[in-house]
Amino acid sequence: MVLMVGHYARSAVNAVTGRAVLLRSKDPNKDQTFYLSQVSQSSLERTLFPLWKYTKPEIRVLAKSLLPSHIAQKPDSQGLCFVEPSSGRHFSTFLKDYLPPPEPAEVVLENGKVVGHHNSIWTVTVGERSRLSFKESQRLNPGGQWYVAEKQTQPPRYVIVPGKDHPKLFSRGLVARDWKWIDEEEDWTQKGMVTQIRHRQRPIKCGVEVSGEKVVVEFEGEEVYGVTPGQAVAVWLDERCLGGGIIENAY
């Protein structure tokens, strides 16, 4: 059975190996290979991506010629379409269905001093603005802002640092777990690979090293902001997505 899906990506067959490969779509702004980086070989070889050769504006033109206007002109979804605020289902509400009850989290400085509290560790992300109250923020860093540099669940706490350019917000590389190569026979020693830790992020040159069940991704020539444990990482060679995993820690 062949499955046809609406993701902005492309599948093809490697002429040398005869195995399926995952390629970026024509529209770099909508490309979704980052989200598909852990797809299995068996699934990919049975999947078609008919949108790969179109940009979003081109899809709009096709839609207007084929569909009722209220559907063709429907605005783009943002983030997860099924938890958008416009749908009445906020992301924090969605998380409550899948995560343990929240425990109050301490907000601490690098020296361990507790400067505030937050009602849940689950909704805090490394690299984002701290949710200290304005009064607390100004008392600690007059005229400045605080950002989340680390988080931990036991005990629940997150570390904040002053300023978005603080060194603790940047990393030289990361270690990933649960890694999946789209082609398990992939040569991960190849040169010229790039990586992303976010959708739409500018691809960053990298080196990859397999260490037991973990994969080390080291950024080449720059440090990367806000590398967050628990989030995804993927690697490409030219337009071909090779695979991805889950960030375990950054360094």
How would you characterize the overall build of this protein?
- With 251 residues, the chain is mainly beta.
- It folds into three domains: 3-74, no CATH class; 105-168, SH3 type barrels (Roll); 170-250, Elongation Factor Tu (Ef-tu), domain 3 (Beta Barrel).
- Helices cover 13% and strands 33% of the residues.
- It is built from five helices and 16 strands.
- The protein has a six-stranded antiparallel beta barrel. It has a four-stranded mixed β-sheet with strand order 6-5-8-7, with no helix packed on it.
Number of strands: 16
Task: Give the strand order, joined by hyphens, for the main sheet.
Answer: 10-13-12-11-15-16
Oligomer: single chain
Tell me about the biggest sheet?
6 strands, antiparallel, barrel
Instruction: Give the class from helix and strand content and strand pairing.
Output: mainly beta
Order of helices and strands: EEEHEHHHEEHEEEEEEEEEE
Assigned CATH architecture of the largest domain: Beta Barrel
Number of helix segments? 5
**What is the CA-atom radius of gyration, in angstroms?**
21 Å
Strand content: 25-35%
- How much helix is in the residues? 10-25%
**Gap from first CA to last CA:** 44 Å
Mean pLDDT comes to 88
CATH topology of the largest domain: Elongation Factor Tu (Ef-tu), domain 3
- Whole-number tally of structural domains: 3
CATH class identity of the largest domain: Mainly Beta
Principal-axes geometry comes out as: globular
Poorly predicted tracts of residues: none
CATH superfamily of the largest domain: Translation factors
